[in-house]
Amino acid sequence: MRRHLWCNLKRLQCVPTITNVLTQGISVAPPSAAATPTSSLLIIRSYSSIGELQPQLSPEIIRIMEQRLTAIEYRTAFLQNLVNQPEASPAEYARANKELRKLKSSADLISELRSKQKEINGLKSLRVDCSEDKDMVSMATEELGEAMVEEKRLQNLLLKSLLPKDDADERDCILEVRAGTGGEEASLFAMDIFKMYEKYSQKKGWKFEVVDLTESDLRGYKEASAAISGADVYGKLKFEKGIHRVQRIPVTEKAGRIHTSAVSVAILPQADEVDVQLRNEDLKIDTYRSGGAGGQHANTTNSAVRITHIPSGMVVAIQDERSQHMNKAKALKVLRAKLYEMERSRIHSKRSKLRSEQIGSGDRSERVRTYNFPQGRITDHRVGITCHAIDDVMQGESLDVFLDALLLQQEMDAIACFSSSQ
Amino acid sequence: MKLSLISAFGMSNFTMFIKPPLFRNLHQSVCSSVKSPPPPLAYIKPRMPLFLRPSTHMVAMLDLCKWYEWAKSLASSVGTTFEDVDNGPDSSLLRRELKWLVDDVTEDRAVSLLMHSEKCDRNVGIRVSLDELYKLWKERIEERRPFQYIVGCEHWRDLVLCVQEGVLIPRPETEQIVDLVADVVSDNEGLREGLWVDLGTGSGAIAIGVGMMLESLGRAIATDLSPLALSVAAFNVQRYGLQDVVELRQGSWFEPLKDLEGKVAGIVSNPPYIPSDNISGLQAEVGRHEPRIALDGGVNGMDDLLRLCKGAGSMLKSGGFFAFETNGEQQCKHLVEYMETDAGDCFCNVNIVPDFAGIQRFVTGFRK
């Protein structure tokens, strides 16, 4: 708990630039290349139990935002006009309505903001006009103060709604852990990490369902995957994607030397039938039976299913459910998630270079964290934060230390994009 | 209607799930006249599957772990011997079955998780006695008693069905019949709201799978010759709350369905289809333990299949559907030939559908 507060205190130190906020971690790791927002942006935020500070938006941000808000106001008015015209074709009508629906929440906030700004102007002129009436002035000042706080709140909400969002954040996810270099020790660490996510999921009240497990000789995991379901699971866990490196004395090591091994973690958002439509013609489903007549001739508890998606060549095999139907259902779930991720990566790689500066850009071989057991510390290389409660983290307790920082960095990157794209 | 209770198996106490009215003929609306009252049904109390029993046997964690280690090494000692002899399970399959046995016998995941960690110092409640656990696993390995009979259940599609000696263990291939029915009713109201028949239902698997899919718009009748199978099927139907959707009738093939001629929307079946001579060479789990009457299809395995094909014409209404499971390509070809020529030109769209192992497994078609 103390360490958690310490991490947050460091973040809270009011410094003018974002880069400083991010590098005020406990370690001496250099700031990662991802954190390069412009220094003209003034944002101070707090996530800790110390208290909620109302974030302060710089004039530059407000100016940019105003441009966007005005554009939305014009667009909404235009669409509303279109919808009200009787000559509009059904297709145009439907399209316009769809866009209106998407803009609705922003549009509502904007009208709230406008009325608040009108109120502020009204109060300001009241103060000037009634400058002799002390009571009036003090009352107006008090109300002005409240109105301006409310204005700030609305501006923050609007800023958030204008930032690029990942639709996938609300979804469930599929977790894949794979032992990398380091042989048996890597498999053992893969198991430790897998269990860490299991415990973390339980603490968050998420459902953690093992999908597949390939055990190594010493009962570590060569590969393990799970389906995690709950609220906003993908948004929270997506930062875990990448290589996790461990430095410790392996169980098998006789001479007490420290070994380094690696585990790769992948997080895929779960996709449903609407996102990824699988046509029966595109799927080849088979059970890998070793010959034999099957049917009534055999009594088997092996109902493993392998599904090949012919157009993409993607293959998923599931074997650990107790019925063929359930193995097939799970395989389809994993297949959808993988195809969805493939499509998302394809779309993202077509986007501008800004994407590659963001965290979790999808590079699976990016080294994200180092776990050093002898020194009892874990370092996240993207935000430059080191946590010394290594046991707590492995028990699923303090993972939020990293996840909160990563989320913060993502938001700041998004704000940087927002202003630089003008 | 009289019911005689035959308690055939010594059992631990459990409440009776099966109510007598289940066997009453529900189709008063469909049949115009009931010719004679059905014969009294022998009611046999089904054996409770392990996973439904209360975990009232207290054992020391240490002892449970000791049993587990013993069972694991017994499984590992098998190697590929069963596989080499009759295509039976190998050690890795047996070890996985062991994990499932632990799942069924322990109260929750916590216990089976604890077993894998070092904390073996408390007492836990399990669903059978420790002695029973030793006995069961010994039976698995030494007598090749099927895993499903040991745990008393089979996971099939998204269901868990109670099974025991005397009832055929539903096969993974048969899961597909329910998918075939689903495809056919998806755009056909007449079939979806009609009467479906599962002949030789055994544990009730297909009838329950179809019953769940019809969503009480349609109805299903499941028949079997064996009173034991029907008792088990009744138990399964009740567990899934389908008493008002699935009716059970005892008798041989179409015999108990004479009142429904020309009114049936669909006939499905997984009849015995193994040639008699092949039975002795079967995998031990099947040949030594599963009921022969559910497997033996006569000289070329086709006796019952042909009987079904012959009767389907008069049972099915116009546009009705049938799907039968077979031994493979040869049987499928014979049936298709029969349906297209000898069956008196009443069928159309007769097709062969393969299973997921690539074997030509099902014959389907429609009554003209």
From TrEMBL, chain A:
Domain of life: Eukaryota
Similarity comment: Belongs to the prokaryotic/mitochondrial release factor family.
Family matches, as InterPro entries: PCRF, Pep_chain_release_fac_I, Pep_chain_release_fac_I_sf, Prokaryotic/Mito_RF, RF-1
Pfam families reported in the protein's UniProt record: PCRF, RF-1
Protein name: Peptide chain release factor 1
SUPFAM superfamilies associated with the record: Release factor (SSF75620)
Alphabetically ordered keywords of this record: Methylation, Protein biosynthesis
HAMAP family, sorted: Rel_fac_1 (MF_00093)
Keyword Protein biosynthesis belongs to the record: yes
TrEMBL record, chain B:
Domain Methyltransferase small residue range list: 192-273
Keyword Methyltransferase in annotation: yes
SUPFAM superfamilies, per database record: S-adenosyl-L-methionine-dependent methyltransferases (SSF53335)
One of the protein's GO biological processes: methylation
Recorded superkingdom: Eukaryota
InterPro entries to which the protein is assigned, alphabetical: DNA_methylase_N6_adenine_CS, HemK-like, RF_glutamine_MTase_cyano, SAM-dependent_MTases_sf, Small_mtfrase_dom
Keywords tagged on the record: Methyltransferase, S-adenosyl-L-methionine, Transferase
Pfam family, one: MTS
Gene Ontology molecular function, alphabetical: nucleic acid binding; protein methyltransferase activity; S-adenosylmethionine-dependent methyltransferase activity
PANTHER family for the chain: PTHR47441, RELEASE FACTOR GLUTAMINE METHYLTRANSFERASE (PTHR47441:SF3)
Identification of the protein by name: Methyltransferase small domain-containing protein
